[in-house]
Amino acid sequence: MNEHDSETISGMLQQRGYTQIPDRETSDIAIINTCSVRENADKRFFGTLGQLKKIKVQNPEFVACVCGCMMQQEHIINAVKQKYPWVDIIFGTHNIHEFPDMLDELFAAREKQKASAEKERADVETAAYPADRRGYNIAKHDVRSAKDTRVVRVYDDKKEIIEGLPAKRLFRHKSFVNIMYGCNNFCTYCIVPYTRGREKSRRPEDILNEIRRLTQDDVKEVTLLGQNVNSYKGIAENGREWDFTDLIYALQEVDGLQRIRFMTSHPKDLSDRLIRAFVECEKLCNYIHLPVQSGSTTVLQRMNRHYTREQYIELVQKLRDAVPDIAISTDIIVGFPGETEEEFADTLTLAELIRYDSAFTFLYSIRKGTPAAEYGDQIPETVKHERFGRLVDIMNACSRQKNAAYVGRTEKVLIEGVSKKGSDTLTGRTDSFKLVDFPGELSLIGQIRDVKITDSNTFSLKGELID
Ligand code: SAH
Ligand code: SF4
User: Fold this and answer.
1) CATH number, domain with residue 423
2) Per the omega criterion (within 30 degrees of 0), is the bond before 264 cis?
3) What digits encode the pLDDT tens for the residues 190-206?
4) pTM
């Protein structure tokens, strides 16, 4: 979600004639887009922000901007204003569309400030003030506070969804597409409903038109984004309500679109109709990210997840009955408040039972303002780390085995670009979202080609093109 927000911010700036450069030190504007989901990101944000001060010292015209869901929290904005008074623009996730206007506002305020400083200097000189005040020049100040020119826009989420914003895509042939914003689920550990607000779905026509435009621009694959795509409820122009599966069936008919993915889908809302769509819609990829969070029913209850361990297992079984080779990944939180050794053991046995293709494992992190932050029985860090290590070992062994089973198979791969391994190696994804590296010509980028898998490791596959 944040990456896609960054694409939108880049797209808007590019439309105004700005260019993205890799080197922060020589930039005129730097924007830090933040994530509030876990504490680690918080810490990294303040560290990175501190580094911008050096640029500001050298170049007082430099514009420092911070945005993203951390800025939807009042205590964070106050901390930025107090500890980093030179930050010029602060905006939240609901104000992204206003960013170019905020820049204009800042530049206008700076001009005004300069003009009044000039005037003050002229007054000072004519009034023959003491010598040490003569020649007062704001540009000579080390890092001046941006207090008088600072632009801050953080709204609540009552506003309508803003359509039609440009985006500078991270990838040429695949794209993220938001279908909804916000979340109504209030899992007790999670900050998202407080920062991103309540669920709001885009109109189906707006989504379809955006995707049609993307396919005309050579996009072959879209990933539909939402905190819980299963609760998508879009009202069409004719007043009909569309659910998520309606959207998938409509996308199946879009010319030029070859692959559909989505994330994330909450297990409590995954419908039988969506499972059927995996079978009937050939463009819907054989892959699902299905966050379980914990293998223990009692922990799931305390997390407010609205499903049990047994219901989750049953759901996976249904998916596998319908689509036997579906790849499944998950999110798991280790060390949720009060998690006993027995409850954690349930997560380990669930992981062994389900045998995920891949997993994102997280140490529980206290998020101020969420119910779980107030729970008294927080787990010591050492215990969390020890449990985390055990879980990761199981998950990695499983990913390795799952990947090894691909060796010898031929997979359709959407060729995304050049691999990090070198310019003569291409990289792409299988239908099941496995990363594959293989030798090939740059001209193949953007095509879906057959690749024979020749080798595997924990996180990726190697292969060779079949002509
Ligand atoms: N809407 C998505 C998840 C968004 S947050 C969903 O429900 O699947 C992405 C992941 O971050 C979550 O699935 C969860 O595993 C993790 N996460 C969220 N809050 C967390 C916290 N306080 N501590 C640790 N992990 C957390
Ligand atoms: Fe957070 Fe739960 Fe909403 Fe996902 S579904 S964003 S974990 S509250």
Assistant:
1) 2.40.50
2) yes
3) 999 998 889 999 999 99
4) 0.89
